[in-house]
Every structure is written in C-alpha cells, then in structure tokens.
Amino acid sequence: MSYEHILVPVDESPISYAALKHAEELALSNKSKVTVVSVLAVDPMFGVDFYQVAPSITEYVLAAEKNAQARLNDIKTTLNAHGVTDVTTKIVREVSPATGILNTLNEIDADLIVMGSHGRKGLKKFVLGSVAQEVLGESFVPVLIVKQ
Predict the structure, then answer these.
(1) What parts of the chain have a pLDDT lower than 50?
(2) Is the pTM of this model over 0.90?
(3) Among 4, 81, 95, 123, whose CB has the most other CB atoms within 10 angstroms?
(4) How far apart are CA 122 and CA 23, in angstroms?
(5) Dist. CA 148–CA 54, nearest whole Å
C-alpha cells in the first residue's frame, strides 16, 4: 500500500520524535507529502478575553506557541535535509489533542496518521486519557502507533 499524505502529530516527547522517524521513512519510500501538527493544550482560560487575563498567563501561552513553532520549523528543516521535500506544518489551538489531530486529518485529507503513544495504563490512563487510543478509535484512515 502506498500513502500519499502522512499526518504526524508531535509534542515535546521523545516518543513523538520516534514516530516522526517512522513517518520520515514511510514518506521517503512512498514519496509522500507530510503534515506535522502540534496541538497546544486546551487553555484553562478558554473563553476568557485573552488580553484581560494575568500577564503571566498571556506570556505562558505566547511562549508555548513560540516554542511549538520553533519545534515545527526544526522538524521541517530536518525532514527537508533528509529528502522529504513536501512538508507542511500546522499549530492547532483551543481543542484537545485528539480533536486537533482528527480535525487536521479532515482538513488535509491525509491517508495515514503516524503518532507516538506514551503507553499509559491503569489509573494514569484513566486520569490522563489516551490521545492515541481516541485517535485510533475515531480515525477513518490507518493509524500507525509507535510505542514507547
């Protein structure tokens, strides 16, 4: 099977970079387009006027977005240097990670998702949830899960 467009959600975790490596190899062998997405965590101040919140919160949100953009720029540069030339990056805000990934999937019409899974079990999974499991359950395209 050949994949034309691969969606790769990333965060700052080592497992998302391991998933990115798998996506790179698939993209090279299939000459695929790659979209790398970073979903910023749901802001607890969502719905509050951004400029009316405490300056420290505003600075935190702006720093998180700046860091995400820098990470995406580095990823794109690295993929290009390794021969994956059709790379798009995207930041999604104000939704949960799984929702941001699935919304991006619908927007870009990818035919594969490659993502990492932290492999949480038991109470940690119950409390923190599993983004990978939610994406896997809701996705209409194949999902390659790279485990820690």
Answers:
(1) 47-48, 123-128
(2) no
(3) 95
(4) 29
(5) 37
